[in-house]
Amino acid sequence: MVKLSELNTLRNQIFAGFTLTMVVVLAFAGVYIYGQVSGLLRGSAEKHIQQTAVQANGRLDALLDQVDSLTTQVATNDYVQKLLLKEADGTRSAFNERQSLLQIASTYMAYSTGIRSLELYAGDYRRLFPLDDTSLNARVSQEMILQTERMKGKLVWLGLDPAQPDSVLAMRRISLIDRGYAAGGYLAVHLSRDYFEMNEPLGGTAEEGDEYMLLADGNGDPILSDLAAADAKEVLAQRGPTVTVGGEELLAVRQQSRATGWTLLLLTPVRASTEGISVLRTAILLSIGIGAVAFLLLTLLLSTLITRPILKLMRTMRGARLGGLKMNPSPAPPIASLEIRELNHTYNQMVTHMNELIQVVYEKEITQSRTELKALQAQINPHFLFNTLEAFYWSLEDKGEEELASIVVAMSGLFRYVIGSAGGDGEWVTVRDELDHAQRYLQIMKMRLIDRLSWRIDADERLMQMPIPKLIIQPLVENAILHGVESRIGPGAVTIRVRSGKPGFATVSVIDDGVGMDEETLEKLMQKIEGTDMQPSAKKGAGVAMSNVQRRLKLYYVDADERGSRLRIESKVGVGTTVSFEITIPQGGVEPL
Predict the structure, then answer these.
(1) For residue 133, what are the CA distances in angstroms to 110, 126, 295?
(2) What pLDDT is attached to residue 510?
(3) Whole-angstrom Cα distance, residue 395 to residue 401?
(4) Could you give phi then psi for residue 184, rounded to 5 degrees?
(5) Which of 26, 49, 192, 205 has the fewest other C-beta atoms within 10 Å?
(6) Cα(330)–Cα(320) distance, integer angstroms
(7) Helix (H) and strand (E) counts for the chain?
(8) Is the backbone peptide bond immediately before 130 cis, with ω within 30 degrees of 0?
C-alpha cells in the first residue's frame, strides 16, 4: 500500500497545483459567463416588469386624481361652504339643512363607482352627514386628524379604514373661502378596495399565475393583492430585488405613489425569466469537462519534464550527504534547464559556505565561554564591596562607634539597592522599598548637614505595597536637599508624602521649606525638564535628575493621563518647593510584588 508521504513529490505537487489552477480558472470563467448571461436575462425580465409597474402606477395615479378632484368639488361646494361657515359662527345646522347634504353627496358619488360613502364633519368633530351623532375623533384616531391638519386642505390617503377593513379611507380639511381659508371642517371619503383593481392584465400579455400585483398603504397593510393575505404580509416584510413566497423566488419591482405614499409591488417568478439558462449551463459544464481532460494531459507531461532532472540531481546530492559535506564534481545533465544547472552550482557553493560557518561557530563558542567567565568574575566585585562594608560595620560596633556604624549600614543598603535587583525584574519595586531607600539616603546626608536637616515620611499604609519604578523618589529628595535645604540659612526639613487623592491614582510629593523659586526661574526649570530649553545652564547639572525622572515617568506610565505622567512643581520664594507626580494604582487593588 502506497503511503501518503510517498505521494508528496515535486511532480505530484506540480500536477496537483496546475490541475487546481485549471479547475479554478475554468470554474471562475464558467461562473462568470453563467452569471453575466443570467443577469442579462433577469435584467430583461426586470425591465419588462418595470415598464408594467410604471403603467400600473399611472393607472393608479389616474384613479387617485379622480377622487382628489371629486372631493375638491365637494369641499368647495357653495352649500357646504355656507353650512360650515354657519357652524363656525356657532350656529348649529338644522336637521333639514343636514338632510339636504344627501342630494349633494349622491350627485358627486354618481361620478365614481368606487366611492362607498362621503362623510362631512364640522370643525368641532361633530358629524353633519350622514345624519347621526358620531364624532370624528371616535371614527378615526387623533393622529389621523393631526395628519389631515398638517396637509392644510390637501387630500390625505390614510389607508385601510380602521372601522371598515374592506374599504379605503381618505380625508381632507375643508377650508372656508370667505374666512381666509381658515379650517372649517373635514370631509371623509370611503372607497371600495375593488376600486383600485387593475382591469387590464399586467403587461398586456402575461398569462394568469405568471405575474402578481400587490398594493399596500403607508403602514404596510395590503389594500389589494393577487396573493393570499399571509403571503402578502410575508412579501411586504422582505426587501431586495427578489422575494420568496411559498418556496418560490420572485422578481420584485416596487413603485411608490407620490400622492399617497402607497407602494405598488409587481412580482414575476424567476423561473419564467431564466428558462434558457439550463441550456447554457449544460454547454458550460461540457466545455469545462473537455478543457479539464486536455489540461490534465498537458500538465502530466510538463511535470515529468521538470522533475526528471531534479531527481537525477537529488541522487547526486544524496551520495554527497552520506559521504559528508563534499563538493559535487559531477555537472548537471545536458537536458537540464538553466535553473537546474544553477541549482547544482549553488549546492557546491553551499558546501563551501557551510564548512566556513562551522569554523566560525566553533570560534564563537570559545569566545562566548570566555565572556561568561569574565562576567562571573565581574560579579565578585560588588560582593567584595558589600563584604568590606560589613567588616567596617562590625569593627565600628566593637569600638562603640554606633553612629558611624549606622551610617555604614545605610551605605551598604544604599549600594545593595542601587546595584542589586530588589524587584522581580530589577525595574519595579514597592513604595515601601523606595521609601526605605530614600530614608537611608537622608541618614547619610544628615551626617554631613547634622542639625540643618530633618525629614518626615507621611505615607498611606494601604499604598506601601503598590509597584513603583526603582530610584524614582530619591533623585527628587536629593534635589530638595541640594537646592532647598542647603540654600537656606538655618535648619531645613524635607517631607515625603504618598497619598491617594482620587480613585485609581496615588500622588507622590517631595516637599522642602527652602528658599523657593520665582516664576521666571520655575519656568526655565520646567523648560529644561521638558527638553525645550536651548540655553546653556549656568549651574552644571541643574535639572538633570528631574529630567531623568520625567522621561522615566513618561516611559513607565504611557497609558496614564496627562497629569499622571509628568512632574508638577509648585514653588514660592521664601516658602519652599513641592515636586509631585501621580502614578496609577493597579486594577483590583494592590498586591505585593
Answers:
(1) 26, 7, 88
(2) 95
(3) 9
(4) -120, -20
(5) 205
(6) 11
(7) 17, 17
(8) yes
Record the cell numbers describing residue 127, joined without a space: 358629524
Helix (H) or strand (E) holding 491: none
E strands, 135-262, are: 156-160, 167-176, 182-192, 212-216, 222-225, 242-245, 248-256
Residue 458 contacts residue 496 (beta carbons within 8 Å): yes
Distance of alpha carbon 425 from alpha carbon 445, whole angstroms? 29
Q: In order of start, what are the domains of the chain with their CATH numbers? A: 76-196 (3.30.450.20), 470-584 (3.30.565.10)
Specify the 3-state DSSP secondary structure of 459. Answer: strand
Per-residue pLDDT at 197: 76
Beta partners for residue 159, in sequence order: 169
Q: Report which of 59, 171, 199, 192 is spatially closest to residue 113, judged by C-alpha positions.
A: 192
Q: What is the residue whose three cell numbers read 536629593?
A: 478
What per-residue confidence (pLDDT) applies to 208? 45
Cα–Cα dist 104/115, whole Å: 14
| pLDDT score for 561 | 47
d(CA 273, CA 37): 11
> Residue 277 is placed in which grid cell?
439558462
**SS3 state at 428:** strand
Separation of alpha carbons 500 and 113, rounded Å: 85
Spans in the chain with pLDDT lower than 70: 1-8, 10-11, 41-42, 45-46, 198-210, 272-278, 280, 305-306, 309, 312-313, 315-341, 369-403, 405, 414, 419-426, 532-543, 558-565, 588-593
Q: What is the pTM of this model?
A: 0.42
Residues, the chain, total?
Answer: 593
